[in-house]
Amino acid sequence: MAPPPATKVSEFNQKDNHWYCNAGLASDITIEIDSVFFHLHKFPLMSRCGKIASILEESQNSQAEPFSTELVEFPGGPETFLVVAKFCYGVRLELTPKNIVKVYCAADFLEMTEEYGEDNLLVKSESYFHKTVLRNWKDCVLSLQSSEPVTPRAEKLQIVSKCLSALSMMACTDPSLFGWPMMMYGSLQSPGGSILWNGINTGARIRSSESDWWFEDISSLSVPLFERLVQTMKSRGMRPEHLARAIMYYARKYLPGLGRWQSGEVGKTRTVFSMTPAVVDQRVLLESIERLLPEKKGKSFCRFLLGLLRVSMILEISPECRESLEKRIGMQLDMASLDSLLIPNYSDADTLYNTDCVERIVTHFLSSERNISLFSPSSLDLEASPSSESLRKVAKLIDDYIAEIASDVNLKSEKLCSLAEALPDSSRSLHDGLYRAVDIYFKAHPWLSDSDKEKICNIIDYQKLSIDACTHASQNERLPLRVVLQVLFFEQLQLRSALAGCLNTFDTESFPAGQTTTATDMAGKIIQRDGWVTVVRENQALKVNLESMRSRVGELEQEFGKIKQEMQKVVKSHSALSSPRLLARKIGCKLLQQPLDQQSDTIESVVRSPRASVELARPSRQSRHRKSASLQ
Known about the structure:
five-stranded mixed beta sheet, four-stranded antiparallel beta sheet, alpha/beta
């Protein structure tokens, strides 16, 4: 039987689960695929498909008409077989990036080689895949995404590995090196970076020079494909910070809870071409993300890890994955922020925040070698710091954390103390942060007894409190009396040591540097540590002013004595009836006419000593007055 002319096949009709070909001849073969039946003709199929030809040869003894067979596990399902059937009937085939992988796999499954027809479907598919798909970023992503249903057959044909290799090569290569014309997102790009439409410069600029231009595109891939693509890029030498940002972008897209604690790239989603988001199992995704993340550190990276830890507690992932996240965070705890460290308690515990998790992270921080490498400069908010500085940063962070959770009425005092004592004493130069946290805890727990408060206060080293903290503690009614006395004692002791050290330092300024005593050095350290240098200098200035005032008072007393002696001589040389004006003229004063009984008071006011004036100004001696001797 000769095959019907291709021109006679105008269309394929569907009725329920049955497909029919308008060839003008009765169907003599029925092929079943996934409960869908195709009523076709033997000759067009045998002339193109080696598998169907083999099936018909093996069943020659069967006289049943029409012949029926089922193709089990046909790649692409009924939709792809319909495309293949149309090709067999001479219908013009249109290959696209979305159907090429399935058609390629179907052609391989049906053995549509050159042996069964020139320019057969397998050759056409292979040529289109290598010459078109693998050379274009968009087509490659779309083809890789469409390969999910036919993964086993696509893996056999190395379709997936070739797509991954092509994508990693284009992502690792500087886009400016592609030259012109470069097919990107379906548009031609000029050497200057403008998008061309029909060869005309539109003036629009694409963002190919940025390192994140491919993040949104590959986020449409499934988790297994994304994981394989990241590993392929890593093997090709992709920079770790770029991989980390791509992983973070992918995680934020499919783990919505991360956006609540993240900032920056969360709202930067760009839709370059139409892509269908992948269906993702969030638990599988989170565990895959944890495996893919590089062993690096950075501020935004640490914040992302803490966000992952929150989501992992909500999803209840495996303990191994959660412990790995805690270790990663512990290695860079010095770059964490307080708000990201406040992890809510998602279990049935009474406390608001998960303090056990934070305590484990601190333990990992202390036990880690802290030799984790940083990202390269200008990426992921880097900040390098030595180990001692990192320890001080973590101590301040934990003090602020304790102060934040101290207001929780269900927080046990033992947990507060264990968090404070998790770090060594050398990590804190001042204990003001611990004192603030303890004070907040006492305010939120007014029912605590003095004995319980004293146990909690044992985490504070009173010798490491600043003057402001000591002043506040000495007047704090929430502290036990014994604690207040200890604070006052150490405050006086430190002030005395600081003052003594400062005075000794001033006294030994003229001597060589090697002759100062150890006590002076210790005092100087105390002064510099607690910020008392200004206070000591002010005390010195007051002391100098006091000495100057004393010398001035002495000079005034001497002058007063001379004036008094001269006045006594003048008084003795005149009789009691002498005119007061003569006396005034003698001492260079002009007196107004006034009654005689007021003259004695006037003279008394003139000859009063300066010391008496100072004493009258004192509150304790306001009621005392001196009376000068009346003039003879």
